[in-house]
Amino acid sequence: MENHDLLTVASLLRQKPHATARLTGGPDVPILRGMVRLYPMPRGILLAVEVDHLPKGSCFAWNIEGEDSLPHLVSVRGRALQVTLVGACTVEDLMGREVTLSQLGSQGVLARGTICP
68 lies in which domain range? Predict the structure, then answer.
Protein backbone atom coordinates (compact mmCIF):
# COMPACT_ATOMS: atom_id res chain seq x y z
CA MET A 1 0.00 0.00 0.00
CA GLU A 2 1.34 3.41 -0.88
CA ASN A 3 1.44 6.45 1.41
CA HIS A 4 -1.48 8.21 -0.30
CA ASP A 5 -3.59 5.05 0.17
CA LEU A 6 -2.79 5.02 3.89
CA LEU A 7 -3.77 8.68 4.15
CA THR A 8 -7.07 7.91 2.41
CA VAL A 9 -7.77 5.07 4.85
CA ALA A 10 -6.91 7.23 7.86
CA SER A 11 -9.16 9.99 6.56
CA LEU A 12 -12.07 7.59 5.94
CA LEU A 13 -11.88 6.12 9.44
CA ARG A 14 -12.47 9.59 10.90
CA GLN A 15 -15.69 9.97 8.91
CA LYS A 16 -19.17 8.59 9.49
CA PRO A 17 -19.44 5.15 7.85
CA HIS A 18 -21.92 4.54 5.03
CA ALA A 19 -23.23 1.45 6.80
CA THR A 20 -22.66 -0.50 10.03
CA ALA A 21 -23.40 -3.86 11.58
CA ARG A 22 -23.65 -4.11 15.37
CA LEU A 23 -22.41 -7.49 16.54
CA THR A 24 -24.20 -8.92 19.56
CA GLY A 25 -23.02 -12.01 21.39
CA GLY A 26 -25.17 -15.11 21.51
CA PRO A 27 -26.05 -17.24 24.55
CA ASP A 28 -22.48 -18.55 24.94
CA VAL A 29 -20.94 -15.04 25.14
CA PRO A 30 -23.72 -12.53 25.93
CA ILE A 31 -21.25 -9.75 26.85
CA LEU A 32 -19.52 -9.87 23.44
CA ARG A 33 -20.06 -6.64 21.50
CA GLY A 34 -18.68 -5.43 18.21
CA MET A 35 -19.10 -3.06 15.32
CA VAL A 36 -18.35 -3.41 11.63
CA ARG A 37 -18.11 -0.11 9.73
CA LEU A 38 -18.29 0.05 5.93
CA TYR A 39 -16.73 2.83 3.86
CA PRO A 40 -16.85 3.03 0.04
CA MET A 41 -13.49 3.13 -1.73
CA PRO A 42 -12.70 3.62 -5.43
CA ARG A 43 -11.93 -0.13 -5.81
CA GLY A 44 -14.23 -1.74 -3.25
CA ILE A 45 -15.16 -1.31 0.40
CA LEU A 46 -13.06 -0.59 3.45
CA LEU A 47 -14.27 -2.71 6.37
CA ALA A 48 -13.28 -1.76 9.91
CA VAL A 49 -14.23 -4.30 12.58
CA GLU A 50 -13.80 -3.91 16.33
CA VAL A 51 -14.87 -6.55 18.85
CA ASP A 52 -14.72 -6.58 22.66
CA HIS A 53 -15.15 -9.35 25.25
CA LEU A 54 -14.05 -12.19 22.99
CA PRO A 55 -13.76 -15.56 24.74
CA LYS A 56 -10.40 -17.21 25.34
CA GLY A 57 -8.63 -18.09 22.13
CA SER A 58 -6.67 -16.02 19.71
CA CYS A 59 -8.20 -16.46 16.24
CA PHE A 60 -11.73 -15.82 15.09
CA ALA A 61 -13.44 -16.05 11.71
CA TRP A 62 -15.89 -13.43 10.54
CA ASN A 63 -17.99 -13.53 7.42
CA ILE A 64 -20.51 -11.49 5.51
CA GLU A 65 -23.41 -13.53 4.15
CA GLY A 66 -22.83 -14.43 0.51
CA GLU A 67 -19.23 -13.17 0.41
CA ASP A 68 -15.89 -14.95 0.48
CA SER A 69 -14.18 -15.43 3.82
CA LEU A 70 -12.51 -12.40 5.34
CA PRO A 71 -9.08 -12.36 7.03
CA HIS A 72 -9.15 -13.89 10.50
CA LEU A 73 -9.42 -11.64 13.54
CA VAL A 74 -6.65 -11.97 16.08
CA SER A 75 -7.64 -11.35 19.69
CA VAL A 76 -5.40 -9.73 22.28
CA ARG A 77 -6.82 -9.83 25.81
CA GLY A 78 -10.35 -10.28 24.48
CA ARG A 79 -10.20 -7.46 21.90
CA ALA A 80 -9.77 -7.49 18.14
CA LEU A 81 -9.43 -4.66 15.65
CA GLN A 82 -8.99 -5.05 11.91
CA VAL A 83 -9.20 -2.90 8.81
CA THR A 84 -9.42 -4.65 5.45
CA LEU A 85 -10.29 -3.83 1.85
CA VAL A 86 -12.85 -5.93 -0.02
CA GLY A 87 -13.13 -5.52 -3.79
CA ALA A 88 -15.77 -6.36 -6.37
CA CYS A 89 -18.79 -5.08 -4.43
CA THR A 90 -20.32 -1.88 -3.10
CA VAL A 91 -21.75 -0.92 0.28
CA GLU A 92 -25.22 -1.05 -1.30
CA ASP A 93 -24.60 -4.66 -2.40
CA LEU A 94 -24.10 -5.64 1.26
CA MET A 95 -27.10 -3.86 2.81
CA GLY A 96 -29.27 -6.23 4.82
CA ARG A 97 -26.71 -9.04 4.85
CA GLU A 98 -25.76 -10.82 8.06
CA VAL A 99 -22.28 -10.64 9.59
CA THR A 100 -21.26 -13.59 11.76
CA LEU A 101 -18.34 -14.21 14.09
CA SER A 102 -17.12 -17.62 15.24
CA GLN A 103 -14.11 -19.12 16.93
CA LEU A 104 -11.71 -20.55 14.37
CA GLY A 105 -12.29 -24.27 14.02
CA SER A 106 -15.75 -24.13 15.60
CA GLN A 107 -19.11 -24.45 13.85
CA GLY A 108 -20.98 -22.32 16.40
CA VAL A 109 -21.70 -18.63 15.89
CA LEU A 110 -20.52 -16.41 18.76
CA ALA A 111 -22.07 -13.16 17.49
CA ARG A 112 -24.10 -11.80 14.63
CA GLY A 113 -25.37 -8.54 13.24
CA THR A 114 -27.04 -7.09 10.12
CA ILE A 115 -25.56 -4.45 7.83
CA CYS A 116 -27.76 -1.32 7.94
CA PRO A 117 -27.41 2.26 6.69
Answer: 3-114
Give backbone dihedrals phi and psi of 89, rounded to 5 degrees, phi first.
-155, 170
Contact 110, 103 (CB under 8 A): yes
Sign for the CA dihedral angle at 51, 54, 60, 61 comes to negative
- Using CB atoms within 10 Å of the CB of residue 10, give its burial: 0 to 12 exposed, 13 to 18 middle, 19+ buried: exposed
Residue 4's pLDDT is 56
The predicted structure's pLDDT at residue 57: 78
Q: Is the pTM of this model over 0.70?
A: yes
Nearest residue to 42 (alpha-carbon basis) of 2, 8, 81, 83: 8
Q: pLDDT for 61-114, tens place per residue?
A: 999 999 887 999 999 999 999 999 898 899 999 999 999 999 998 889 999 999
Phi and psi at residue 6, to the nearest 5°: -65, -40
User: For residue 94, what is the domain's CATH number?
Assistant: 2.60.40.200
**Number of structural domains, the chain?**
1
